[in-house]
Amino acid sequence: MAPIHLEDVAFEQALNSTAKQLLAYKKRSENDQEAAAIQPMAEIAADLELDHWLSEGGMTPDRYAEWLDHYLKPTTRFHNPRYLSHQVAVPDAPTALAELIHGVINNPLAIFEMGPSAATVEFAVINWMLRHVGWQPEPYEGADGMHGGGVFTHGGSLANLTALLAARAAAAPEAWEQGTPDDLFVMAAPAAHYSVARAISILGIGHRRLIPLPVDDRDVIDASKLGSTIRQAKQRGRVMCVVASACATGSGLHDPLRAIGEICRESNVWLHVDAAHGASALLSPKYRGLLDGLELADSTIWDAHKMLRTSGLSTAVLFRCARKMMSAMQQEANYIMYGNSMGGVDLIHRTVECTKAPMATKVLLNLAFRGESGVASYVQDRYDFAREAYQLLHSRAGFECPFPPESNILCFRFGTDDAQQISIREGLLKKGLFHLSSAVVAGKRYLRMSIMNPHTHADTIQQLILAIEEGHWRD
């Protein structure tokens, strides 16, 4: 019989303690009166004894259980129905299993031989996503590059950068060797996610060559003016790509993808759609029409750590044509890129990252346990409830909703003072009553809720209304 190692025993004890404490934390979070318990960083550092553990070590399973209890106390409780702030998933249980598996086996998968199971799962999940977008999946063998393709990245910002790298390669193939030319322009609406502007500067294009697209009074792209805007831009240089949103992060509204896609095809311009949040609506027969025309795009991104209920980070960047995807990054490294005869696909040629976590395994396990129909029901239910919440707020005196929601993101305000919206948000958060976010849409400041939690219902919104009306946010 093999000897039992003390470290194995300690790990098992700590593992059992972790499972017990996390399950209790989840149950408390679902029912606790506090949606958040944020403390100053210095207080958290003292409670966690960070200086001691960093310099002295010596943690035991018992001390670890105490430490984890302190760690969990000042957390943001996504499982609480009154968490209504950022577009971060309330992670479903199967995703935690995937995180644990990777934490033990540590198989990165950019090189197939380093993580063959994880790489195969990612390949299959990417194909599942491609089919939902309306693009041709990539075969395991005999690929010719004319099909779709994709890769998972650590977040939507990196996914948008990866897509724009491919768009740059299509518009200016010389850029990889010679540097970004000074006649490239990117076109996006002011409501586009900030990562788009950041990616443009990283690519060496520069923010001054980001052309703002014409929008309507909701900050949605006005497709009737897109063609003329592209023609004017082409008189100044080359249009590298047009970026559309499905949906916009701040408002939850969708740009008219079909009209935009048809104009971009006629103009021979790359269309990238940031569908980080909204792509999950493709699973819902009721709401997939919001993304009508997505199949006309050249690239898109899809965050699983939003409406697919995986823990962060887990974002797919998808391409209609895999051959164009493969042109994004052309660098070689002879210490790791020396051919693959193992019957799999090396993903390192598709991504900025080398040591890449198995992010798609989280998606697979959520789908495997819940079924595609179960995940689709969650998406549809949260979109449906956003419309119910809109009715509750819009019909209440003193509250204003600028437009009906198109997703599970809802903007509203109490009164007409922009500064008051910030005061309401901060006051409710400091007291732990509700966690809301805020956004500026068409020049006005609104409170904003992302209805992610499956346990957020009408009574939650009624409590929020009363808390605002009765001034519970005031000191």
Would you mind describing this structure in some detail?
The protein is an alpha/beta fold and 475 residues long. It is built from 16 helices and twelve strands. The strands form two sheets. It has a seven-stranded mixed β-sheet, sandwiched between helices. Strands 1-11-12-10-9 form a five-stranded mixed β-sheet. It starts with 5 loop residues before the first helix and ends in a 6-residue tail after the last helix.
Give descriptors for this structure.
475 residues, alpha/beta, Aspartate Aminotransferase, domain 2, 7-stranded mixed β-sheet, 5-stranded mixed β-sheet
How would you summarize this macromolecular structure in one to three sentences?
By secondary structure, the chain is an alpha/beta fold.
Topology:
Elements: H1 6-31, H2 41-47, H3 50-55, H4 61-72, E1 83-84, H5 93-105, H6 116-133, E2 149-153, H7 156-171, H8 175-178, E3 184-188, H9 194-202, E4 210-212, H10 226-234, E5 238-245, H11 257-267, E6 270-274, E7 299-303, H12 304-307, E8 315-319, H13 322-326, H14 359-394, E9 399-400, E10 409-414, H15 418-430, E11 435-441, E12 444-450, H16 458-469
Parallel strand pairs: 1-11, 3-4, 3-5, 5-6, 6-7
Antiparallel strand pairs: 2-8, 7-8, 9-10, 10-12, 11-12
CATH-derived architecture of the domain at 102-365: 3-Layer(aba) Sandwich
State mean pLDDT (0 to 100 scale).
93
* Main sheet summary: 7 strands, mixed
Which CATH C-level class of the domain at 102-365 is it?
Answer: Alpha Beta
Under CATH, the topology of the domain at 102-365 is which? Aspartate Aminotransferase, domain 2
How many helices in DSSP terms?
16
Rg of Cα set: 24 Å
Cα distance spanning the termini: 65 Å
Number of DSSP strand runs: 12
> Could you say which overall geometry the principal axes of the C-alpha atoms support?
globular
Q: Helical proportion?
A: 40-55%
Order of helix and strand elements from N to C terminus? HHHHEHHEHHEHEHEHEEHEHHEEHEEH
Q: Which class do the helix and strand fractions yield?
A: alpha/beta
- Unreliable stretches: none
Strand order within the widest beta sheet: 2-8-7-6-5-3-4
CATH H-level homologous superfamily name of the domain at 102-365: Type I PLP-dependent aspartate aminotransferase-like (Major domain)
Question: How large a portion of the residues is in β-strands, by DSSP E?
Answer: 5-15%
